[in-house]
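1st attempt posting a full record on here, be nice pls
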Amino acid sequence: MTERLYYENAYLTEFDATVLACEERDGAHHVRLDRSAFYPTSGGQPFDTGALGGARVLDVYVDEGGEVWHALDRALGVGERVHGAIDWPRRFDHMQQHAGDHMIASALWRLLGGVTIGLHISCDVSTIDVAMPEGVTRISPEDIRRVEDDVNARVQRDVPVRCWFPEPEELAKLPLRKPPTVSEHVRVVAIGEDEMVACGGTHPATAGQLGLVKILGVAPARGKMRVSFVAGMRAFRDYRAQFDRAHEAAALLSTATENLPAHVSAMQESLRCAEFELNRLRRDVALRTLEDDLARAQRLPGGAAVVARMLDGDAGLAKDAASRLIRRPGVVALLGARAGEDRAAFVFARSGDVDIHMGQLLSGAVKPLGGKGGGRPDFAQGGGPEQALDAALALLGIQPDAAADD
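the predicted structure (as tokens):
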């Protein structure tokens, strides 16, 4: 069985070992050593990378028998004595994230009763899945702040981090946060005096080496609560990015960063007022244009005037415009409001003295084109391609090019 050197010293970055086996599989050379400082993927923590005997380490994993294997980009000779070098920035980043996981999990347990059931460390953000009391999948901003304050207070106190393999008698007496998932060779990690749990990962020697822990978000995930966070240099880089963005935004708005929320709120209110006024003006223009269209509209054999137009507005405008037009006798209004690329919302309506079924007309126009719609004899609504307006005119016996379009 490979001796795992990182158990005794997570800061070990170089070592020498003997090659016990080398097998070629799946386009890589898989090597087993008598001893290794490379951490294999497990417990939500990714594998270490680096170099081994001059070869590049592509993956490190544990097989079903508990043996550690190193996937390399070239073969090594069995019996060969090789030198290994760990990619330290990657290793230390994972140590910071893993310790941050323990400290957040501890705070969630002590303060809110949450039980951590999974950790995932990606290349940018780490996540913890937590089973909360009563199936809660979100917590308040105030509770998030409580957890962050608790964790960072311990970071500032630089509480010690201890990792060891207790004897069974000692293990049985330890106040572990949750039961171990293995029954033999249980390794325990303790952070300060109130966090203790079984874990085989790598961690810094003290909490102060995390520097900073920041919770980025809390959201439901598969029936549990998922907490996203960053620790150490990841947290620093996140703070620097947020700082730069805030100052850039403040400069664009000619204000101070502390005034940004109030400034943006005022801008949003101004924008709402401007949009309201713009919509009012669009409505007025559209209605005046429709009045002009009515004056020169083509007429059906029975004398009804047909107004067909695509409007620059929403379905509400089309509905209002149609209702206004059919207040007059002898009017058929076929109106559409653009709702995306080659898509429109349609409102077909007629005056009470016109004998044309609007629901059937709309259905006959949009359904052959893949749209949907229908309604009452005097008023119908639906949606489909803009060409449906021409199709409706054709069903009425009117040349489509007679339709107006703003």
